[in-house]
Structure formats: C-alpha cells, structure tokens
Amino acid sequence: MKIYDVSVPISPEMPVYPGDPNVKIELRESILKGSACNVSSISLGSHTGTHIDPPYHFIESGIKVDQIPLSLLVGKTHVVEVTSACIDKSVLKEINLNNSMRLIFKTRNSYLWSTNRFVEDYVYLTPDAAEVLVEAGIKLVGIDYLSIEQYGSTTYQTHKTLLGNGVIIIEGLNLAEIEAGDYEMICLPLKIKDADGAPARVILRN
Asked: What is the pLDDT along the chain (206 residues), one digit of tens a residue?
C-alpha cells in the first residue's frame, strides 16, 4: 500500500487567499539561545493551506469543524482529473458520479503551488456544478487550490450551495503526484472548538 501526502506545508512564504491572515511562525524559546527546548508561536488563518470548510463557514446554523463526523473525512474517495478552465455542469456530465460519496478534483491548480504568489486565475467549481454534486449525493468535495469558488465572486453561491446542503469542502490540496482513480482518504483537521475552518493533514492511499 502506498501513502500519498496531499497536504501543502505551512510556512510564512506560502500563498494565502487575499484578505486572509499571513502565516507567522516565531521561535520563542531556543536551545541555541540557552533555553531548555525549542518552542514556537504560530499565527495563521483558519483557512490556511490545506484546510476544511465546514457548513458554518457560510451558513450560520451549520455545523462547525469539531462537529464534522469523522465518517465523512475517512473512507473511499474518487479522484478525477479535469483539464478545463472551470468545472461546470457540462464537465460533470463526463464524470460518473454514481456510488461516489467523496469526490476530489485534480486540476492544473496543483502546479500553482510551485510559486509563493497567489494566482487569481485558478480552476474553480461553478454554482451549477455544485447543484449537480448535491443532487448526486456527494457529501465531500475537494479541490487543489485555496478556494473552490471563482476568484472575485461576491455571491459565494458555490460555497453556499455545497455547505448549505451539508457538503464538506476540502481546499488547498496538492495533487500533482496523484493519478485519477479510487483511494482511501484520511483527512484530519485540527479539532478547534466552534471553528469556521481548520488546517488539515490529508493523505490518500491505495
């Protein structure tokens, strides 16, 4: 069995979604400076790097990160590769959504992680495609950049459609080394009480 780590490393140099807090890591206790051990302070946004969007991110009455059932975050997951500039309803017609509960999209976004600059022209999921996923019974959807929504959206309808129907979103995956197919996913976000999002370590194995 091979294990693939599809999480991005958290560092002060990494790109963050515009408006989100930058990552700050400061060594507060240092062995080299005479301390008994090394201890760092870490400051970052709840939607940094590879992270989870629970319904509460956009739905006030939605469940929060610490309330997501682990049964949604662990199990069989289908990875599909998409080459189009966006994932819309027509793209999904080419994908067999039957018997899929967890669906991850691999796009050209995965190669954007090679730069520390945020790239606005990333591949996103359209609202009509979000509706198709909900109707198909998808319970978790993942994508390989910092948002599943089109950059600059003011309505956030893709998020609202998915999260409003209880679909969990994983954003910020790096799927550059992953081939399309079926995997077992283990996705463990930080268990932050009442959080609207949290960084996660995500692995795929087959």
From this structure: 999 999 999 999 999 999 999 999 999 999 999 999 999 999 999 999 999 999 999 999 999 999 999 999 999 999 999 999 999 999 999 999 988 899 999 999 999 999 999 999 999 999 999 999 999 999 999 999 999 999 999 999 999 999 999 999 999 999 999 999 999 999 999 999 999 999 999 999 99
Domain that holds residue 77: 3-8+46-205
Q: How far is CA 126 from CA 20, 55, 156, in A?
A: 22, 18, 10
Domain total for the chain? 1
57 is catalytic: yes
Side chain identity, residue 121: D
- The CATH number of the domain holding residue 175 is 3.50.30.50
Q: Which of 47, 51, 57, 159 is catalytic?
A: 57
